[in-house]
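User: Structure tokens for both sequences below?

Assistant:
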Amino acid sequence: MLAEIGLDSIVDVHTHFMPKQVMDKVWAYFDRAGPLTGRRWPIAYRLDESQRVQRLRDFGVAAFTSLVYPHKPDMAEWLNAWAAEFAAATTQCIHTATFFPEPSAPAYVRRAIAHGAKVFKAHVQVGGYSPTDPQLEPVWAVLEEAQIPTVIHAGSGPAPGEFTGPSPVAEVLHRHPALKLIIAHMGMPEYREFIELAYRYAGVYLDTTMVFTDFTEAMHPFPGGAIADLAGLADKVLFGSDFPNIPYPYQHAVESITRLGLGAQWCRKVLYSNAADLLLHDTRGSR
């Protein structure tokens, strides 16, 4: 599939590796179809950590994230320490960190950056907080100055949260126009609103996580009229999978990109070079 579009590898900006006790709880939540999932959601890659890393390598993934996220205070810094160790021990892992609205957040975000974090994760839905929380204002300022992107789950899918939706994100960007944000799941289901933010702000990107797959199309279909908008955002769309927490084969996530009909060059940018340029500082461009 990759060879057909002139690629031999992928950069996946949206994969989850977490401490075992945390991942076990995440899987248990999916197993009981918790309210934030919205439906039955079998985990396709419920494997040991080393097996999951090897599976990504087998899929041709050259680099991937270890997105962690806290659901309560006094958790983020511990997750950051784990993620730093995981990245140091895992060659292809892009050093990932996270934060939560709490007084200590600016300091531990600075420490994570000093220790080499290349991308952060913010989960508005699970964390139950607003991106506009005053305690996050200095965090956004630090990330804007450092020009380090944050993968932010702020869309109201698969189920809405109290603070999800494009408006709070737009307010943050108004205050921090140079901030780099990667909109997880392309903002599902508020696709059009988040696409508009990507056009408006230079630092806003969209990740394709679960979008266009048969599983998602059945519940939150991508508007057909917006496909053309993605052609104009060829340099700002990044491939994400949500591995291992997906209910279908990994290859289907890749196929969902290549079957859009936007051309081989667009696919090469989405599946590799856009993320390589942003997170790996790989200046080779489209491959």
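Moving on to the next sequence.
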Amino acid sequence: MFISGIIPGTLLGTGLLLAIFLLGLKNPYPKGQWLNKEEALKAIVRALPALAIPVVIILGILLGFTTPTESAGIACLIALLVGIFVYKELRLSSLTKLLERTVISTAMVVFLVAAAGVFGWTITFEQIPDKVAQWITGTTTNPIVFLFLVTLLLMALGTVLDGIAALILVVPILLPIATQNYGIDTYHFGVIVCIVLVLGLLTPPVGTGLFVASSLTGIKPGKLFGAMMPFLITVSIIVCLLVIFPVLTVGLL
């Protein structure tokens, strides 16, 4: 899955950079200045302690020393120590306010996940995933059309369900159909599912990432969602390309 995500990740990064560039041409954003070589070197050296955080996360998971949750906890500890002793931008006296904001944000996420759990129970009780899967298989025999329909289904579920809950509900039903009935590669299907469900984190009414960003910035979710539309459209276009051209995901395998 990591290897299958290299090209899609590159496409996503390039597409989002292009979207930012076009927005920069349209909107009067403030202009910056290029650093000279000496300033750039100093900036890189100063950033090295902070860059250790993602390195610890990735190596800890890949080498099997930590689970993703444990690596996140270690990363938080490293960030705290770096902020206090290296950059000296954090103070022990400010930890109370930081922990208070953390508790508020965490509580909001827990309530969103709880609400998504209610939706998940309702959807499971009504056997909606099974019915939709039967409808999709009865609608088309084309694998590309099948993937587009699955993408629309996941986008719809992502608006009301947490990503993990959507995975548990949908993938066990649709993955065997995708591989056996339509000959779709498992990794190709998995990459598309992951990207589409990430979009669900940013779409209301149960967009966990959207509400966390709103809480941290103080911007209303509706206004924030409107500002994200160019990026959501960009990601949707790239998902369409991945659906049409499977080589973009399985080409490196």
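User: Anything stand out in the second?

Assistant: The first helix runs from residue 6 to 26.
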